[in-house]
Amino acid sequence: MIKHMKRLCSALCGLVLVFGCMAGLLMTVSAADDGTLTLWCVKGDDKVAGMQWHIYRVGHRSDSDYVFDGDFADYRLTLGDETKSMLEWDADTVADAGETLKAVTVADEIPALADGTTDSAGRVTFSGLQPGLYLVWGEILQTGDTIYIPSAVFFEMRGEDDAVLNAYPKIILRSMDNSSADYSVRKVWLNDESQPQNRAASVTVARYRDNQFYDEITLSEENAWTYEWEDTVDHVWFVLEKVIPAGYTVACRQRQTQYLIINTYTGTDDQTETTTTATTLSTAETQDTAASSSESSTVTTTAAVTTTTAVTDKIPQTGQLWWPVPCLAGSGMLLLGLGFILRRKEEEE
After folding, report:
1. What is the rounded average pLDDT of the residues 166-177?
2. Which residue, of 31, 33, 64, 298, is most buried by count of CB atoms within 10 Å of its CB?
3. For the chain, give me the number of helices (H) and strands (E)?
4. Position 42 pLDDT exceeds 60
């Protein structure tokens, strides 16, 4: 009888130790790899509830470089110094990249990784995010006579100590009225003063109005790379260059009702043109995204991520089940002790 009890205790002890190790391993991997982003949509004392948000994984960090992959692998966006952390980039560079990526997802109808809607506190959370580069943007929301226009947030999920992020997107308010405004889009070429022959003779720009593809215009030297139009302020526009010229990267920047499409020469002439499909869209909100650096969207964590300062307290990873560890460990010790006592009794007999 004692021998049977001893074998049973040994078997149970082994199972407890195995499950305990597996639980500890799974929680360690999950805590290290699964990140969480919480968006707080607040404008003054106004907590913006009912705003829909979409999140995309657009790339990853590779050694000292940022690489776009998946649906974004063929896009050439203007980034900061890719040998440095995004923390060291200029705030406008980060904001411009976010707005450009947002326009791309809309024009090419790229499916989101996940969707969410802000609650009564103006909060929405995305969890289970692997380390990498992410874009999150929100749909324009109309409540009564007020239009809420959120900016996009471009950030890096670094994992480990930076696995819990809080983002505070910039939100522009507009009133529903019929007052008119002058809009303009201008093409800017950078870093190619000694290589003017590399510039395209003209570029095609797609215009989007109120979540719908509107039309296409052509910019060239004949119109000084500029186009102007008039509309009421209760409409929301954004523009997108359809074909990125070979050897260039692109960034779309918006100031109030003025839009800049900036092509930066990279010095690599062997790059092919990248085409963006201008189709019907599911959102449009490149409006007023970075009127000044102080108004840019912010992402905070144990280290600042996108444009502003950091929160110093590390937030424990939510959703992890730590309670089985002490229970399993205690059960293992109890069974080991019981086995030891039974063994001594057997020896005494």
Report:
1. 90
2. 298
3. 3, 23
4. yes
Concatenating the DSSP letter of every residue in 35-91 gives EEEEEE-EETTEE--S-EEEEEEEEEEETTEEEE-GGGTT--B--S-TTS-GGGS-H
H or E segment to which residue 335 belongs: helix 324-348
Tens digit of each residue's pLDDT (9 = 90 or more) over 93-147: 999 999 999 999 999 999 999 999 999 999 999 999 999 999 999 999 999 889 9
DSSP secondary structure code for residue 151 in this structure? P
Please check whether residue 306 lies inside any domain of the structure. Answer: no
pTM over 0.90: no
> Pairing between strand 153-157 and 132-138?
antiparallel
- Show Cβ contacts of residue 28 under 8 Å, excluding neighbours closer than 6 positions: none
Judge contact between 77 and 249, C-beta under 8 A: yes
d(CA 79, CA 101): 11
* Spatial separation of the C-alpha atoms in residues 170 and 3, rounded to whole Å: 71
Q: Could you tell me which of 279, 238, 240, 213 has the C-alpha nearest to residue 149?
A: 238
Same domain, 252 and 344: no
Structure tokens at 73: 């692998």
* Residues spanned by the domain of 238: 35-300
Residue 128 lies in a domain: yes
